[in-house]
UniProtKB/TrEMBL annotation:
GO terms for biological process: fatty acid biosynthetic process. The keyword Magnesium does not apply. SUPFAM superfamilies: Thiolase-like. Pathway: Lipid metabolism; fatty acid biosynthesis. PROSITE patterns: KS3_2. This is 3-oxoacyl-[acyl-carrier-protein] synthase II. Its EC number is 2.3.1.179. Belongs to the thiolase-like superfamily. Beta-ketoacyl-ACP synthases family. It comes from Neoroseomonas alkaliterrae. GO terms for cellular component: cytosol.
Length: 421
């Protein structure tokens, strides 16, 4: 029940997933194994003036029925709640509305979006000053609470009855993995027998799309959306923005065994490494990426040769895939394990990515199936990795998976998930 450092082993007993592919864990996993793309044209807002007009969007039920489009924090909360509910149902831990542990919420930074800004401008009667907008917002508690960073966590904690103050955090594209790491460490320290770790993002809105476009981070391959995300492929030209959520119910293995829970796997290692080289680019020497991978493997008490598969960060930008290849070669040498990118199908779910990919890594071990990297038509001669091109692969004996999350601002977190002992 203890790891090589004498810490409690941390088991996963519940998984919930929402992505553009589907609502639900098993529906998502079936779609990923089939190599299906969830990328489509953006229908949520006008795109005729935008360079990129595609994304991986998750429609809420009322939006699909033609109702009003909700703001990003509302979308984050709705997807997050669905993922947590699914994970809790599988874990069967605690009474409804009374979870015996804390909540760690990985979510994006939030700010007023254009509909709210236009509303405040109208109420300010055409005065475009910051003071006028602030005065117009006075007394708007609903607006304040909706867009308050951490408000999503507060409401989810109240809904599911978690203990203590919920932790809301953002570490760019590593956010979901950071939430899992914080939950794991809380259990390892003996602060709780259980925790909920959650990553969620609903940022497909005009300003976010424009900002990523200005960074030259997004692909503009709009003609065939399902073929636009091309991690590790020679013609890759940027990532596809997406959204979704994933939740893990975590417990000490001892606690899970004692109550007779089904253990889905173990989060056996967490590694992080910061890189202050640039706001968006990685240091060309790859030191932080390499360090995060090595730290996760060492934290799990493993050797690099024990890793049988890597769930890539794999965004499809020219630089990221080159740097991840560099990291793979430094960590694993001349015989790296297979690596594939879920983002080829789901797109880049930003704050949710680390949690979604950790969840899919656990399902990879459960079913002994490596998900594919789709849209891999023209191999890049500079990327000499087995990327599981286009078709899922059945394997046997897979026990340990490394899941990589590399974020803007040099925020890098890697997780090792392992088969239950």
């Amino acid at each position: 029940m203890k790891d090589h450092l004498g810490r409690p082993l941390v088991a996963v007993t519940g998984i919930g997933i929402v992505t553009p592919l589907a609502w639900g864990r098993e529906a998502n996993w079936q779609a990923v194994q089939a190599g299906r793309s969830g990328i489509s044209r953006i229908r949520r807002f006008p795109v005729d003036k935008l360079r990129t007009t595609i994304a991986g969007t998750v429609e809420l039920p009322e939006e699909a029925a033609g109702g009003e489009i909700v703001s990003s924090p509302v979308r984050v909360e709705r997807m997050a709640a669905a993922a947590v509910e699914e994970a809790l149902a599988q874990a069967a831990l605690g009474e409804p509305g009374a979870f015996p542990g804390p909540l760690m919420v990985g979510m994006p930074p939030v700010e007023y979006e254009w509909p709210q800004r236009f509303e405040l401008a109208r109420k300010a009667k055409g005065d475009g000053s910051y003071r006028a907008a602030t005065e117009a917002a006075t007394g708007r508690r609903d607006l304040y609470e909706t867009f308050l960073f951490g408000g999503v966590g507060e409401r989810l904690a109240a809904r599911f009855g978690t203990t203590g103050a919920p932790i809301a955090l953002t570490t760019a594209c590593a956010t979901g993995a950071s939430a899992i790491q914080m939950a794991v460490e809380a259990i390892q320290r003996g602060e709780s027998d259980a925790a909920i770790a959650l990553g969620a993002d609903g940022s497909v809105q005009p300003e976010a799309v424009i900002r990523f476009s200005l960074l030259s981070a997004l692909t503009a391959r709009n003609e065939e959306p399902e073929k636009a995300s091309r991690p590790f492929e020679k013609t890759r030209d940027g990532f596809v923005m997406s959204e979704g959520a994933a939740a893990l119910v975590l417990e000490s293995l001892e606690h899970a065994r004692r109550r007779g829970a089904t253990v889905l796997g173990i989060v056996s290692g967490c590694g992080e490494r910061a890189d202050s080289f640039h706001r968006t680019r990685s240091n060309p020497d790859g030191s932080a990426i390499i360090g995060a991978m090595r730290n996760a493997i060492a934290d799990a008490g493993l050797q690099s040769s024990d890793i049988g598969y890597v769930n890539a960060h794999g965004t499809g930008t020219p630089e990221n895939d080159k740097m991840e290849t560099l990291g793979m070669r430094a960590v694993f040498g001349d015989a790296p394990p297979p690596i594939s990118s879920n983002k080829s199908m789901i797109g880049h779910t930003l704050s949710a990515a680390g949690a979604i990919e950790a969840a899919l890594s656990l399902l990879t071990i459960r079913d002994q199936v490596l998900p594919p990297t789709i849209n891999h038509n023209e191999p890049d001669p500079a990327i000499t990795l087995d990327v599981v091109p286009n078709v899922a692969r059945k394997v046997s004996g897979l026990k340990h998976v490394l899941s990589n999350s590399f974020g803007f601002g040099g925020q890098n977190v890697c997780l090792v998930v392992s088969a239950a002992p």
